[in-house]
Specification:
- The protein is an alpha/beta fold.
- It is 44% helix and 14% strand.
- The chain contains 15 helices and 13 strands.
- The strands form two sheets. The protein has a seven-stranded parallel β-sheet with strand order 3-2-1-4-5-6-7, sandwiched between helices.
Length: 393
């Protein structure tokens, strides 16, 4: 019976794709231990994992908007992860020595998991919930001015925290190596090779397993008014201006619309809505996408993957650099139209274009098939167990 230990970060987008992998491993008789955080306890234990809380190891005052800042504030990521590594080092490494896992699965930005695997000589699998990034694909990230300012301001803190970690016994800390994937590390990527940019630059140690979702069948949508789904995700808040522009764009349209406003935008802040536009704080996104004809999205990796998996073409409105990389790939593959300026006129024109040109839906369905054939949770479990059972050199 193989023992597999997972390490995650406090972010839903990085945890959700691993839940079904945990379920698949436990179904095969594996013991799974998952070091994570209280909001994810229920999902992980329901999937069969032994949950170990890491809440007490976080810095005393982590940023309240940490998940939002991870996408652009590099110093926040490094500071939080290196502090957490030093707090976890003695107790958690002691637990791992006692439990003796056959394989350690660490999220791509869970530095403590990667560092513990190296320190203890545990075979590592990197769990990548975004595109895989190496030296070639890292060049695809075009930092926005505000993100560059965050990075420059944070460089002294990054240097300080790196030195503290080295003084704590991690002498050969390679920050770039922790951030980027390399071709010698066994890696699971939750997308298909068809969607991954520059897929040819990644070795066969990468398992592109597709998004691990309960994928609904992709069906032709006929009858009734076309349904537009609009969401900027649950993390980005305070975009009342954007949603008001969407209302203006759609007020006299022949479409139905569902808005998922997320944090920071109250439903009543949009004023009186026409009957064909409905707004909610949150929705069951997969359920809405099963009925939608077009999705106006911020291009977070999970949202983009769910849209493609459901065969829904997109209007692309990225809000930060990682999302911009996803949007550019979707535009390259012909599954969506980039919005550009977020004016009512541009929004209406982009939606009209996607709905009137059937090629966007056709290409989305083709890409959805690459997701279905990638293997999902079963392929991810196969990869993990191949590493766990690999003979020692």
């Amino acid at each position: 019976m193989s023992r597999v230990v997972f390490f995650g970060i406090p972010a839903w987008g990085h945890t959700n794709p691993t839940v079904e992998v945990v379920r698949e491993l436990t179904r095969r008789g594996c013991q799974v231990r998952y070091y994570s955080f209280t909001p994810f306890r229920e999902k992980l234990t329901e999937a069969g994992a032994e949950f170990v809380s890491c809440d007490g190891y976080l810095p005393p005052d982590p940023p309240k908007d940490l998940e939002k800042r991870l996408g652009k504030d590099f110093s926040a990521l490094v500071g939080m992860t290196f502090d957490t590594t030093m707090r976890m080092d003695a107790p958690v490494c002691g637990q791992l020595r006692e439990w003796q896992p056959d394989c350690l699965v660490a999220d791509s930005v869970c530095f403590w998991g990667k560092l513990f695997a190296k320190k203890l000589g545990i075979p590592l699998v990197c769990s990548t919930t975004t595109f895989a990034f190496n030296r070639e694909t890292a060049r695809l990230i075009r930092r926005r001015p505000d993100e560059l300012i965050w990075m420059l301001r944070g460089l002294p803190l990054v240097r300080k925290k790196t030195e503290q970690l080295r003084c704590s016994g991690y002498k050969d800390v390679d920050l770039i190596g922790l951030l980027q994937n390399d071709n010698e590390t066994d890696t699971i990527v939750y997308t298909s090779r068809a969607f991954q940019p520059l897929a040819e630059t990644f070795s066969d140690r990468y398992a592109f397993v597709g998004p691990v979702l309960a994928l609904p069948p992709v069906q032709e949508r006929t009858g009734g008014k076309p349904l537009l789904y609009v969401s900027l995700g649950t993390v980005i808040g305070g975009r009342k201006d954007f949603f008001r522009s969407c209302v203006l764009a759609l007020t006299d349209s022949p479409y139905e619309a569902v808005f998922s406003l997320g944090e920071g935008t109250a439903v009543d802040s949009l004023g009186q809505l026409p009957d064909h536009i409905r707004a909610f704080a949150r929705v069951d996104q997969l359920s809405v996408l099963r009925r939608a004809d077009v999705f106006l999205t911020h291009c977070g990796m999970n949202s983009a993957s769910e849209a493609i998996a459901c065969g829904v073409p997109t209007v692309l409105a990225p809000q930060q650099s990682e999302e911009d990389a996803v949007a550019r790939r979707m535009e390259e593959l012909g599954v969506g139209v980039r919005l550009g300026r977020e004016t009512p006129e541009r929004i209406r024109a982009a939606v009209d274009r996607v709905l009137s040109d059937g090629s966007y839906a056709a290409r989305t369905r083709e890409l959805a098939e690459s997701f279905r054939s990638a293997g999902g949770a079963a392929a991810a479990a196969d990869k993990i167990l191949s590493v766990a059972n690999r003979p020692s050199l």
